[in-house]
Amino acid sequence: MLNEQRQSATATWTLLALALSAFAIGSTEFISVGVMPLIIKTFGISLSTAGLTVSIYAAGAPVLTSLTGRFERKTLLLAVMVTFIVGNLITATAPSFALLLFGRVIAALAHGLFMSVATVIAASVVPANRRASAIATMFTGLTVATVTGVPLGTFIGQHASWRMSFTVIAAIGFVALIASQILVPAKLPKPAMGQRGGFWRILKQKELLLGLIVTAIGYGRVSQFTES
Q: Which residues cross the membrane (predicted)?
């Protein structure tokens, strides 16, 4: 009974840490939409060019997910959050639009990897009959980010600066990193070793390529209509 209570408490705290991380990552996904006019003013670029801050993030998110099979889940989670923080700090301090895009790419890579590793961790800390519920709890962070995170970031950008918006997100990511280090158990089931060449096989999948193309075209068309 006592052991079951400890396992339940561990699972609860782990899911809270993952949900906080998901909130930070979800907030940064579309935050550039709200602060885009400020980014345009800062760098003197067109709306369609500024739209790359969204489209390049969406295209970069799934790229490295296939390369994670050989790493321990907690180690990978912490590395992902560090990458996420660095990406947002680069974005926040970028002296040029090119460097801003580089920071967005770094954050996007962390996004895709987080979705992969966090789902595995959430499912591994609970019994099999609770896995769906655990994953849903983790994704609550994304839901909350959609409702409150992005508007809050936009508010900060409009009343302080767009750089402050990304800095605050990086700070939330840092809190999530500390929470993950403390709350996520070190001993998690290790996944099977990734197969050699799996990354290139995934890139050859027509469904993935079609999805990336549709995403790029979709954001491009939105930028065209909003600019005109």
A: 40-64, 76-102, 108-128, 135-156, 162-186, 207-226
Number of domains in the chain: 1
| Structural domain that includes position 156 | 11-215
Q: Is residue 139 domain-resident?
A: yes
Residue with tokens 């994704």: 139
Whether 5 is in a domain gets the answer no
What is the reported pTM? 0.77
Phi, psi of 133 (to 5 degrees): -65, -40
Tokens for 204? 């050859």
pLDDT tens figures, 26-71:
888 778 777 888 888 889 888 777 766 666 665 555 555 555 556 7
Which stretches of the chain are DSSP H helices?
Answer: 2-29, 31-43, 47-50, 52-60, 73-93, 97-124, 131-144, 150-159, 162-183, 198-203, 206-227
Identify the helix (H) or strand (E) that includes residue 188. Answer: none
Distance of alpha carbon 84 from alpha carbon 105, whole angstroms: 10
What is the signed CA dihedral for 136, 142, 147, 151, rounded to 10 degrees? 170
Whether 161 is in a domain gets the answer: yes
What is the domain-level CATH number for residue 78? 1.20.1250.20
Helix 2-29 and helix 97-124, axial crossing angle in degrees, nearest 10 = 160
Q: What is the pLDDT of residues 144-190, one digit of tens each?
A: 988 887 788 788 988 999 999 999 999 999 999 999 999 999 877 55
